[in-house]
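Sample intake sheet
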Amino acid sequence: MIHPERDDWARQLTALRQQMAEQAASLDASGEFPWRNIDHLRAGGWLSLAVPPSCGGAGASLAQLQQVIAAIAWGEPATALIVCMQYLHHLRLAENDAWHAPLRQQVFHDAVEHGGLINSLRVEPELGSPARGGLPDTVATRRAEGWDISGHKIYTTGIEGLRWLAVWARSDDNPPLVGTWLVPGDSPGITVVKSWDHAGMRATGSHEVIFNHVRVAAEYAVDVWPADAPPAAQAEPFSPVRQPADSAAGGDL
């Protein structure tokens, strides 16, 4: 299993670049999801590098993770974007106490044991990016057994391979809650519309997703707040960067 503190870290990064490059041309031509690349990364433990050691991961630093992303991107950039989203989610999740603890552990465990991928589904046809403000049209309706989610997302990078969907939505309350609902990728009611057909980064598979009455339990509202009382912005979203043991390992990436 790969680990950034191993003596052969630099050699592993070089091998990773070469492995990712093998399918680059065919993936760019076909636009197919990079299953072979993801399977290779999963088998080597690359997809759980950002998971904390307490949860079975390597607990790699930002600098070490950057080296990995650079190596993957040298070979096949679409795969690198999918993995970058994975690392960012794990880093944020490690410092987010809002999540129901068993769910956080489940996401981490899935990454360590099975290479389970996670990404956010935030952008919508009408709203665009939520960074510009406004409430999403994706609605989570309260039910006795939890939530019923319906909506439409676009630019959902890696959707064909995602195990976990972090869905930006609002509740049907007045005033509504807004934030993230966690949805297992194999939930009934999810439809992927394969609309991503761009000139570059074709293998990211950033297709559209339609949620049609997707049911999740109450605790899957993992990070939500009243729309009229958003949480204060965090000045430092990540912990300070820990320098890798061999800072020269990724110098040529």
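Comment: The longest helix spans residues 77-94. Residues 234-253 have pLDDT under 50 and may be disordered.
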